[in-house]
Amino acid sequence: MDPKNRRRHRVFATKHTEYHLRADECVGVRDRTTGAWLRRHAALRLRAVQLPPIGADAEWIGRRLQFWGHATDVTTSPVIEVTRPELHVLAHYVSGVRSGEIAA
Fold this sequence. Notes:
mainly beta
């Protein structure tokens, strides 16, 4: 990551779904039609196999994201847009557990 660029969050949108990433980890998945957060999506908490460098997001249009994990792998449909999330969206991410909190 570029040391001058502190942006860690990106949204990779496919036709029906948004994949919200912090660095290479999928921290949120949202249905583009309803806006509902998909809390049980298989991609959550998985790591992307390969991503474009920060600032080269347009290179990923038409490509698919691939996520890997211990028990499952996920491949998305082609990416149609790459953006940054709005600030209020960060509170919806599954990684909202903070130091000192006990996860339920």
